[in-house]
Design a protein that fits this description.
alpha/beta, nine-stranded mixed sheet, about 30% helix, disordered C terminus, binds S-adenosylmethionine
Length: about 375
Amino acid sequence: RVKEKWAATHPKYPPTSLALQHFDATYSVQLGKMWPSVRVALLSERKYGALLNNFSHDAVLADLQEKGCRDFINDADTEAQPCLEQVSEEESGDVPVKKSDSDGQQLSPPQLSPNIPQLSPNIKCVVFPRGDITRFKPARPDTYRLLGYYLLDAASVLPCLALNVQEGHNVLDLCAAPGGKTLALLQTQAIRFLCVNDTSVSRTLRLRKVLQSYVPKEFLTDENIRITSFDGTRWGDIERNSFDRALVDVPCTTDRHSLMEDDNNIFSKTRTGERRRLPQVQLALLLAGIEATCPGGEIMYSTCTLSQIQNLSVVEQAIHLAREKHGIHLEGSVATFNDCERERDRERKSDRQSFLCASGRAVLSARRPSAPLTAYFC
Ligand code: SAM
């Protein structure tokens, strides 16, 4: 038995503790009375959803349903209606988009907007029912060696659904690795050309492996898909006005991961500078996504943090800068999928809501020009 070398290997304050301290300080102000329940959710065991692989030849859905899984997207019991607040370009400058009472909580009741986007077709995801934390078995390869499902936080499919991919679209996935959302987008089988990018070469390799394990070779030709490892913040210099849809799933403080894992944790002392630069990088990536999208196109911004600085503030600045620097006009609305703001209505809580609360995912969708812009805060 080897005695652990505490002094040499263990920092006095592990990154997970620093993350919790940081969230306690910031989210208690931002979320007010909701923070204790959000905190519990973030510290609870992670619950996965299974993104079904439409390319697989096995009857995976029936098998999972037999095991008690429910449709995360269409099941009436798990349906979570987004609560929307309108954000016009004029409002989106320096004015906070979220309206708050003195506790920093969202005002109720939330209004449903006519601008709820259509959903991308054919994306299927199943979850075990609320309160059931059964783990999915690893997916098995079918006779063509394609895996039947991909495990991910079910909230991760929301940006892909809300991106509203339609037949024949050219789509950019700017920060794509390891590829969960790329895979979800490919499930639509509607995309004419998918451009997949991630600055990390090693993570892009993982993405390639994911695609090879789930998608038949004939769908992965140069005519259908391009995989690159560019710095996404420079995309505006590479390709402008080219895509019908852009997914900008930015690096962020990954709140859940930061509370659970000391390895590769953005709150470790050595990564303080990187963490502080995040909003700047996020803004540059979102602006690049906006520039890459053609007029009339839609942009989806998503994070897995609850941080207002990484969500609303980035979105507001991007809208402002897109107009001021590039003459690109965006309009839209903000949607909150925030489970916690519905805490008072416990009876209506659903699986999806608790997922969203647990994962803290925020999504922005925008259209250019003069079309709706929607942000989802989960
Ligand atoms: N969309 C991915 C998925 O669903 O699997 C997850 C993306 S992860 C939240 C953020 C990604 O952004 C990381 O893979 C990271 O390597 C990438 N990234 C960070 N900075 C970037 C940049 N400047 N350009 C492009 N990608 C970047």
